[in-house]
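[step 3/7] fold_predict: job queued, chain A
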Amino acid sequence: MKTFNKIKAFKAKFAGTVSWRLKRHCSVIDKHINPNEELLYAFCGQLNDHPLKIFDTGIVAITSERLIVAQNYIWPGYKFVSITPDMYNDCTVKSGIIWGAVGIETIKETVWVSNLSKKALPEIETIITTFMQEMKKKYPPRDED
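[step 4/7] structure written:
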């Protein structure tokens, strides 16, 4: 229920974001959050990079340990992605005519969250970047063989 409260606050602040079935998506995050983790921030949007696809709603949550992406499917099942700071590469922000998108680039893939209110983009980028910069300091550098 903690995640849903964060999402409600995000949606109240950035009402132009397109998202559906938020309680169900939040339940996936609540199911997978570890007892030692603290939920710091959460936002919602479409888990794709195309502004006309509006039926792929998902939640992105930042905890004290990692970044979580979750989506509850309409049919049974769900999608859950955990991005630890050592796997994080970069954050991309795109602003369009009506909405914007954020790309969270990892070593293996890029997770796009689109149909975000344009006013939300600076806040989301700042929170993700600041969190990842601080957390990466805790990880030893990787060997680049």
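[step 5/7] annotate
Helices lie at 2-13, 22-32, 121-136.
The longest helix spans residues 121-136.
exit 0
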